[in-house]
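Lab notebook, bench 4. The sequencing result for the construct came back, and we need a structural model before the next group meeting so we can plan mutations. Quick request posted to the team channel:

Model the 3D structure of this chain.
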Amino acid sequence: MNPINQCIVLAVALISSSANSEELVIFQSGQVAKAADINANFQSLVNAHTPTKYNILSNGIIIGFTNYQQDGPNQIYPTQLHNRDVSLGYLGKDGRIRNYSSVYFKSDNCTGQGYLKISDDDHYDIDKFTFPSTKLHLSDYNDNLYYIDGYNQAYEFDAGSEFSRSSTGRSRNCRAVTSYNHGYFVPWQANDTNVTGISSYPFATPISLEGHTEIQIIQQ
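Done. Here's the predicted structure in token form:
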């Protein structure tokens, strides 16, 4: 087979696996392939692998967007909020953030400064955990919003207690740390509008995705 024809067959095969067949130009044996048709098929391949961007709405106002595909019942995993790239768990229909990570404390009763644990290893290279300051980490505990603007400084100590996430919803349970308590920790800071751009929390409801009517926001 002619090398050019082989490339065309391969392209069609790749596109067919991810694009609707109605969008494709199907070539027959011996048919002269037009450049415009070949280019259109390649564009279909590109489009099929381009993440869909949905605006996140808080009471009808755009507060950010997500690039994650939402297949069936799912939650909103924001890519950006208030023009900041974010890292968090997900956003619930009540306008509050659920974070998968535990919140650690030096105290034995989950009071005082809260920390995010980034490593258990005493000898881990902390530089590995230094992220660009443009990456904003968000969490919710004690019904308040906290942030970390990049992992710019870590502290080594033995944690005395932690808020561990429950299996459902956004509630957390306080428990004394009896094992794996030593590590490196980054402090959570109370929300600062000048840093996060978030002036009111929880976010005003309803929470929805623009142009996506099938999504089911996480239940309480």
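The first helix runs from residue 3 to 16.
Will bring this to the meeting.
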